[in-house]
Design a protein that fits this description.
It contains 27 helices and 20 strands. It has 702 residues and is α+β, with helices and mostly antiparallel strands. The protein has 5 domains: 142 residues, Hypothetical protein af1432 (Orthogonal Bundle), CATH 1.10.3210.10; 154 residues, 2-Layer Sandwich (Beta Polymerase, domain 2); 78 residues, Ubiquitin-like (UB roll) (Roll); 146 residues, no CATH class; 77 residues, Alpha-Beta Plaits (2-Layer Sandwich). Strand 7 and strand 8 form a beta hairpin.
């Protein structure tokens, strides 16, 4: 029964496509078998109704298949994979797009949120067909809302009024917009709707005579002038009457006693011709004429609007437009499919939408501000933004590609500076994860945390970038200056001078000689390796005299491991307190600490100019990362035993990687541990050697 109904509507498709749509119907019917709507109808009646609505716009076969299948992935055991295999990837993507929209609910009460929410839906859709399917779905659900519980009716009606009706309006789907708008009104304000509907019905009888008289007069005049035209009377939809009464504080009769007429002609010159004829027939009301042909509305709508003094002084609102303009006015974005049905070249949705935009652009180009107009439409359909929810349900707009770090800085600089982790849709995710439309994002902060230079690799907002840079620069130069002071003092002592012996006057002189503003700047330069400590020390002492050239052993600098960015422990050898160490100044990065035997610095070791003597502060109060490698017998539970052994010695496991050795009798495990110092590490390794399965154990330095 449903199939025959559907077949009637899709006769515009090619036979192959009709067969595909019928196959989708059969698939959907068996998937939904045994399911019923609240009304008692078999569930399949709903997807069929949605497909029929889309067929009215002559949408392509893919869109119709997707309409028939739009609830199968969400509500039946059928999977996206199956849809993709049987009907192609494009159809599966459309179904997936509609399901995604279904999953997100508009919950917030705030009005300002509605606009962002609409944009989010449009952004999620990507393909305009997804929105068209969703609108048809919503329209059918609204038409059958009676069978829903009262509470649910109100929620759906409110969502329709605030979200879906305006989207339909925005896309120029006028008849869908009016129906959604009226149905929402009916369920949100049942009493007002009933009273108004009754008043309209009563008034309609009185109108008939006048409407017929005016129609006859207009048709006659146009014929005399040789303008070929179709003329109709039209009625306002209920919610628009209601809104007018509310907005302008008018009574029902003040709103309703305005009569509407529509004149449809064959081309643009005929529009203006008809306008002249009408202005000759009835006097126009000054200030009411609007030329939406020269300056179309944002959604592409075009017409001439004028209001006339009719018989007995009754106001008559007249719209004059061409047939093409009428199609766009009624079906908006969908009108493109109406025009081009059966066009073999145009079956790609993006391309079609683009063509639609292009056709609007051509209409528009006569009016001048074409580019601005196109940008306007494009932003709505394919925005460069993503929309995400905060835990409190607020919607935030961010540029496409934005991460949690961008969001954190967008909320507040302090949140950005202190963020350590993020939950996306209640699951922990890396901070670098790209946010998607509709994600619920919760930033986790810690009071001691600060920005990580690695964030600069993936943040996309200027705000986040600027704040991270600013923080790093300030922190970096403070830390570098502290290190620089130590390095300078070390050099001064080597030259047998106490740092306190250098007076301020000498410093001032040095600053002037070097054309820098502050002592801190010089010290930071030393810390960052941009100036050599010995050179600065000699300049401070020598006052221009020739300087010592012989090399003196310098005292060493103490390292606590908590200096921050100016002093870094090398990742290759991971030095820990107790290890013999040396420092290498890396220009721009500061001092890097390696172990004496680190292979990475083998070539520097012989050249004392290249490195700085450093030693551990005896009071380091910090845990240090270190890598150890174990070879173990490949047996069940060995990892647990090793982990327990490590915990027994109070060391933390930061990371573990495993690889199987040849023949898989043995496996090797590389642990990154946190220990206090060398003694602590030694205790850990001693403990692990007691485990029988452990064959070999060694510290790893690369
Ligand atoms: Mn549905």
């Amino acid at each position: 029964m449903h199939l025959a109904e559907l077949a009637e509507h899709i006769s515009y498709l090619k036979p192959d496509d009709v067969a595909l749509v019928e196959k989708a119907y059969q698939f959907s019917k068996s998937a939904h078998a045994g399911q019923f709507r609240k009304s008692g109808d078999p569930y399949i009646s709903h997807p069929v109704a949605v497909a029929k609505l889309l067929a009215k716009w002559h949408l392509d076969a893919q869109a119709l298949m997707a309409a028939l299948l739009h609830d199968v992935v969400e509500d039946t055991p059928a999977t996206k994979q199956q849809v993709s295999e049987q009907f192609g990837k494009a159809v599966a993507e459309l179904v997936d797009g509609v399901s995604k929209l279904d999953r997100i609910e508009f919950q917030t009460e705030a009005h300002a949120q509605a606009e962002k929410f609409r944009k989010m839906l449009l952004a999620m859709a990507r393909d305009v067909r997804v929105i068209l399917i969703k609108l048809a779905d919503r329209l059918h659900n609204m038409r059958t809302l009676d069978s829903m519980a009262a509470e649910k009716r109100k929620r759906i009606a409110k969502e329709t009024l605030e979200i879906y009706a305006p989207i339909a309006n925005r896309l120029g789907l006028n008849s869908v917009y009016q129906e959604l708008d009226d149905l929402s009104f009916r369920y949100l304000f049942p009493t007002r709707y009933r009273v108004l509907a009754k008043a309209v019905k009563a008034a309609r009888g009185n109108r008939r005579a006048l409407v017929e008289k005016v129609l006859e007069a207009i048709q006659g005049k146009l014929q005399d002038a040789g303008v070929e035209a179709g003329v109709t009377g039209r009625e306002k939809h209920l919610n628009s009457i209601y809104k007018k009464m509310q907005g302008k504080s008018l009574t029902f009769s003040e709103v309703y006693d305005i009569y509407g007429f529509r004149v449809i002609v064959k081309d643009v010159p005929a529009c203006y011709l008809a306008l002249g004829v009408l202005h000759g027939l009835y006097k126009p009301i000054p200030g009411k004429f609007k030329d939406y042909i020269a300056i179309p509305k944002g959604n592409g709508y075009q017409s001439l609007h004028t209001t006339l003094f009719g018989p007995y002084g009754t106001p008559l609102e007249v719209q004059i437009r061409t047939q093409d303009m009428h199609k766009i006015a009624e079906a908006g974005v969908a009108s493109h499919w109406l025009y081009k049905a059966g066009d073999e070249l145009a079956n790609d949705a993006q391309q079609k939408t683009h063509q639609w935009l292009q056709s609007l652009l051509e209409i528009q180009s006569e009016s001048g501000d074409a580019i601005e107009f196109l940008e306007h439409i494009k932003i709505d359909l394919f925005p460069d933004e993503v929309y995400v929810f905060t835990p409190k349900g607020k919607i935030m707009a961010l540029p496409r590609g934005a991460t949690a770090v961008d969001l954190a800085y967008n909320v507040h600089t302090d949140i950005g500076n202190r963020c350590v982790a993020v939950k996306i849709n209640d699951e922990l995710a890396p901070l670098r994860m790209e946010l998607r439309n509709g994600d619920r994002v919760e930033i986790i902060t810690a009071p001691q945390a600060h920005p990580n230079p690695a964030w600069l690799n993936y943040v996309v907002t200027g705000k986040a970038r600027a704040h991270i840079r600013h923080y790093l620069k300030t922190m970096h130069s403070e830390e570098a200056a502290a290190l620089g002071e130590q390095l300078l003092n070390q050099a001064l002592r080597a030259l047998k001078t106490e740092p306190s012996a250098i007076d301020e006057a000498r410093w001032t002189e040095l600053l002037r000689e070097n054309n820098v503003k502050s002592k801190a700047e010089i010290l930071a330069d030393i810390g960052l390796g941009k100036r050599l400590n010995l050179v600065v020390a000699r300049r401070l002492l020598a006052s221009g005299e020739s300087v010592l050239t012989e090399k003196k052993p310098l005292g060493s600098i103490t390292i606590r491991g908590t200096e921050g960015l100016a002093v870094q422990l090398a990742q290759c050898c991971r030095p820990i307190p107790g290890d013999p160490i040396l420092g290498v100044i890396n220009k721009g990065k500061g001092l890097i600490i390696h172990t004496h035997d680190c292979p990475a610095i083998a070539q520097f070791r012989a050249d004392p100019d290249k490195w700085v003597d450093v030693e551990w502060d005896p009071e380091t109060k910090k845990l240090f990362d270190v890598n150890i490698k174990l070879v173990v017998a490949n047996q069940r539970g060995v990892l647990a035993k090793v982990a327990a052994g490590i915990a027994d010695e109070n060391a933390n496991i930061e990371n573990v990687a495993m690889e199987e050795e040849d023949g898989s009798a043995y496996a090797s495990m590389i642990f990154t541990l946190q220990v206090e110092d060398r003694d602590h590490l030694a205790r850990v390794m001693r403990g692990l050697r007691q485990i029988p399965a452990v064959v070999r154990i060694a510290r790893v330095k690369r």
